[in-house]
Amino acid sequence: MYNNKIFNIVVLAKQVPDTRNVGKDAMKEDGTVNRAALPAIFNPEDLSALEMALTIKDKLLENCKITVITMGPVRAADIIREALYRGADQGVVLSDRKFAGSDTLATSYALALAVKKTGHFDLVIAGRQAIDGDTAQVGPQIAEKLNLPQITYSEEIMNITDTRVRVKRRLERGIEIVEAPFPCLLTVHGSAAPCRARNAKKLMKYKHAKTPSELAEPGTENQSRYSQKPFLNIEEWTADHVNAIPERLGLSGSPTKVKKIENVVLVKKESQNINPNEEGIHLLIRELVNTRVIG
Amino acid sequence: MENFYTDNEALKFQLSHPLMRRIVDLKERDYADNNQFDDAPVDFEDAIDSYDRVLEIVGEITGEILAPNAEEVDRVGVRVENNAVVYAPGTQEAHEALTKAGLYGMSLPRRFGGLNFAYVPYVMAAEIVSRGDTAFANIWGLQDCAETLHEFASEEIQQAFLPRVNKGATCSMDLTEPDAGSDLQAVRLKASWDETSQCWRLNGVKRFITNGDADIKLVLARSEEGTTDARGLSYFVYDRAEGATTIRRVENKLGIHGSPTVELVFNNAPAKLVGERRFGLIKYVMSLMNGARLGVAAQAVGLSENACREAERYAAEREQFGKAIKHFPQVYEMLALSRAKTDVARALLYETCRFVDIYKALTLTSKERPLTAEEKTELKYYQKNADLYTPLLKLFATEFCNQVAYDAIQVHGGSGYMKDYPVERLYRDARITNIYEGTTQLQVVAAIRGVGNGQYLNMLREYDSKVAEHVTGYEQELEHLRALVARYEQALAKANAWGTTSETYDFHARRLVELAGYPIMGYVLLLDTLRNNRFARSLRVFLQFAEGETAKHAAIIETFEKDRETDYKY
Fold first, then answer.
1. What value, to the nearest 5°, has the Cα angle with vertex B496 and ends B493 and B500?
2. Virtual torsion, Cα B551, B552, B556, B558, nearest 10 deg
3. Fewer Cβ close by (within 10 Å): the C or N end of chain A?
């Protein structure tokens, strides 16, 4: 497929707070996540999305170009570097104070504009959902805004031709195999193949790659390197670059309002301890039969 | 997320050794590659940062893939299908992950697709891999064959074979034959020049070949008809794609089940000559073996680290008589000794690597330009040290690894004997390390030269003067070391009186080598401790252990009468 023609894939990835390490400063007073207080990681399902793109690139080699877009603060450039280490061709950080506080509607608006700005694309791949919000809305909303067919919960690409992709979807009660014409959007389920490790040479090549904002930070040495080696420059787009309407961004573009944050502490109710002995096992079996869990 | 590099600070510590600057400067030759290769470093700090980050990838793949797969790989083993070896699925997954991560060909120049890493980080990767899966360490470690091709083969052969290594081509060194094991001079596999097709043809059998179905095989063969000794042997490279070998069997082994050991027949197999005729064994294989011995030492240290951790974990969790068993003196002595042996073997491993690094880099430089007088002296000094330390390292790292694995089972008690815990596998895997690439007894044969010509003593004196200046806080340990050296000299004097060519001297060779080895390891660990006191406990525990071993060996020598070895002969 795609002889002599470049197959363009856009991967959408998010830097998320590592929810496995939530401390007491995790939330701000206004009910949004305090990103500064948590270790930031590559959203796991977005890594699987990247892997899906990379398996396509494994087959098409230089006839395939992967562009990774991430929206977030300056340090979200980490996501682009991590993607470059694994085989992405280029990346864009979509970063602007105007994006702050965006809900899924405002986020998908900004990301859809960014995807459009990359030019011709055949496939957009994103993780199903991010571990900080668990909404699973951004991918489908982008598909709607770009008027693309979408396949959610993708687990594996079964076949790919010049014009179509066939995908296995992982659903609650089984699998479903569907096809869509290009261009289309996939969201990737956590059961998809995990992402490959970073490549040593790519890591050494891109480890100094930076966005203009990072370069402006004090302490960046060897500035001349960035003009000599263009690949070290990570693109950074603001709201203006993607021609966004300010009202549709950030808090003003977000109809979702957080009313209240509550700490839910799970307390054990109606539980009973069963001793790990013969008698205990009898008790347990009797209980399970009585409550019709078994038998 | 398990990472076998970042969870072991002792590794990164070795990257901070003062000699690293010289090593990296030589290896990167003024950092000239940076103009040509995007992944080349701009300066020393950049190179060390790359080592560190790339080792983190090795640690991640090992922690996430190799280690979890190791048990199943051991159970499944390898099989032969259609005259090809099929690795266990877990082995295939590991090989693919390491290949995709671009980690093979780690020490090769960039123009051949390599990472141009120094020996220290390259060997560190081998140690890490071995901690995850000791069997896999062979498949990983045999990329060292590419080093030999790079050192001795023609440009044409290098161009043809070396770039394949980074893309995942596997290697093997085909030396052993049914009647040529430790005594490789007896190799009979025949190489004859084929005038018609203008290539060499190999005919014969190789046995016990680790990873014997590899893509690229380095084969020792008799090219000079009518000869029977080492001078009739040459070195060849054979491409598996030629399809001219038959796999006769894969061995059923005690351990390292994931690593195929193969008997194979060469059927008029077309091959290319590496380097010059007649230098096969005396030059190229000797060089390859030195590299391989370092590799096995790394394998042993990695396994020791693994066994230590398993024992430490179990001893902390297992309770008897109302407390964790690690609180019982007889148990914590085993744990501390295992830790000390692992730490000291690692210290010696990287000390040896540094010697190898400098002499190899200077040798390579000498092919491009004449060396200065100082560089020539430097080259000689480090080559001598590398030759001196390699057998010592192989001997101690692998013997310690066996002891550590043995004690790891002992700490586990009955549970350790069961397949439910990994230590029984480690114990089986450890057993080969002091056998292949030259048994411990053969390492003694190589190392005894350093005893006889006083080179170990010279090194001990050199260390002493190096340490003496800034030993504050460790005066007692230094005194202890000096006492060990004195005991060694005393025993040596007695042995010398028997005559260095006498059988009695030979009979005590291992004891003499060990007597030299204990203080050498002690000094190396003391030097490490002076840079980082995390090793202080291991140092003290090791010195205590060395004291006992030294006393034992010295006592046997001191009470021995010449020719008494006849009592041992049957």
1. 160
2. 0
3. C
Among candidate residues B98, B81, B260, B231, the one with its CA nearest the CA of residue B165: B98
Q: Of B524, B514, B318, nearest to B408 (Cα)?
A: B318
Q: B556: which strand partners?
A: none
Which of A196, A197, A205 comes nearest B39 by C-beta? A205
| This prediction's pTM | 0.92
Residues of B with Cβ-Cβ distance to A203 under 8 angstroms = 50, 53-54, 57
**A202/B41 touch (CB, cutoff 8 Å), yes or no:** no
Q: How far is B108 from chain A (nearest CA, A)?
A: 13
Return the bridge partners of A91, or none. Answer: A68
Give the tens place of pLDDT for each residue, B324-358. Answer: 999 999 999 999 999 999 999 999 999 999 999 99
**Rounded Cα distance, B297 and B292, in Å:** 9
Distance from CA of B93 to the nearest CA of A (A): 11
Question: What SS3 state is found at A180?
Answer: strand
ipTM of the complex: 0.92
Residue B56 and residue B6: Cα distance in Å, rounded?
6
pLDDT digits (tens, 9 = 90+) for B520-548: 999 999 999 999 999 999 999 999 999 99
Domains and CATH numbers, chain B: 171-279 (2.40.110.10), 445-568 (1.20.120.470)
**Kind and range of the H or E element at B262?**
strand B261-274
* Contact across the interface for A200 and B101, Cβ inside 8 Å: yes
What pLDDT score does A31 carry?
66
Q: Which residues contact B313 (CB under 8 A, 6 or more apart)?
A: none
CB nearest to A201's CB, from B41, B60, B102: B102
**Which of B:64-83 have CB within 8 Å of A?**
64
Q: Does A200 touch chain B (CB under 8 A)?
A: yes
Chain A residues with beta carbon closer than 8 angstroms to that of B50: 203-204, 207
| Architecture of the domain defined by A7-253 | 3-Layer(aba) Sandwich (3.40)
What CA–CA distance (Å, rounded) separates A69 from A235? Answer: 10
Backbone angles phi and psi of A117, in degrees to 5: -65, -20
Question: What is d(CA B163, CA B105) in angstroms, rounded to the nearest whole number?
Answer: 8
Confidence of residue B157 (pLDDT cuts 50, 70, 90): very high
Name the one residue in this structure whose structure tokens are 């590398």.
B386
Provide the chain A residues 220-249 that lie in CB contact (below 8 A) with chain B.
222, 225, 229, 231
Residues A247-283: pLDDT tens digits? 999 888 899 888 877 777 777 777 778 888 899 989 8
Question: Is B100 within 8 Å of A229 when comparing Cβ atoms?
Answer: no
Q: Give the angle B318-B321-B325 at the CA atoms, nearest 5°.
A: 35
Strand, coil or helix: B188:
coil
CB pairs under 8 A between A and B: 48
